[in-house]
Amino acid sequence: MTSQAVSSVFAAYKLPLHEVPKPRDGGKSLAARAKDAGLEPPTVGARIAFFGAKIHGEFMLASTFDAIATTRPALPGAPLTQSAASQILIRDWTGELANQILGHLKNQSRRVALSFETRTPIPLSGQAVELMTPKAPGSQVVLFRTGRGGLAFCFDAFCHTDLDLRMAAAADDGNDGTLTLL
Amino acid sequence: MKNKVLIVDDSLTIRQVVAEALEAGGFETLDASDGDEALLKLRQRADISLVMCDINMPEMSGLDLVAKVRRLGSNVQFVMLTTEGKPELMERARGLGVKGWMLKPVKPHLLAGAVRSLIGEAPSGSSALSSSPSGIPGTRRRPTPSPTRTQ
Questions:
Q1: pTM of the predicted model as reported, rounded to 2 decimal places
Q2: Which CATH number goes with the domain that contains B107?
Q3: Number of domains in chain B
Q4: For a tag site, which of A23, A28, A173, B45 has the least CB within 10 Å?
């Protein structure tokens, strides 16, 4: 389910993703898992808490400046560099990307009668990214390689009942970006 | 005179992307990073034709902003631009007179046409959209809920 939501959102930003096999997890941080899979160490990230009657936890995204910058829609002005101003823009965009992916997960989850609310994203950089570590026993970690760096995602969910989250994954209905008249 | 659109989103990138697309489509834009700033701009400017607004924002949600604006007596048009697809939220939005709902990720090439279709078909100050034209690119009708069955 996580993999499908990530792919949907990144397809909109035209960054091809190649899922890489997950290393055996030992409760390690996302940064350590990325390293074990041969990906670059993540330097930017975001986490978003979610909560519902049947589920709670956090969604995490960890990646590199270049990979995130590649997905940021092109805008007039100077290209993004490693400057402080660009770092602020990338942190903002990382939070928004995480928000959009979790939004997809939330909408998919309704297909299995699973409802949850989300908090606003917390963008992270530096050591805070290195420390991002899944806590739930059944957390779903997915890793991707791109031409511009690696991406690590985690749907770190504590389920209060038996839920098969895989059932929620389904093809998008193609309504992203279109106007629905109410 | 260009129609003015207020963009309300806590993400700077989204505000920039939407502004860029709408300005290229002939609109003038203003932006606000939260509900309080949006209220201030709506009070200062009576000539805003439409508000394009996120839902999940810190402090005040987009729908709470719409409710406050309505309590202040304004019928300015709203389109929600969000990751939320919950039918209950769409129903609440409809009840508040929100015209449209767009799911992120944003498709910049569809934005100006969508806004133009709303501003063009309903003059500022009107309420529910009762007769939208069909065939507007990037526009769809909200599916009609199934009738409730009684046992």
A1: 0.85
A2: 3.40.50.2300
A3: 1
A4: A173
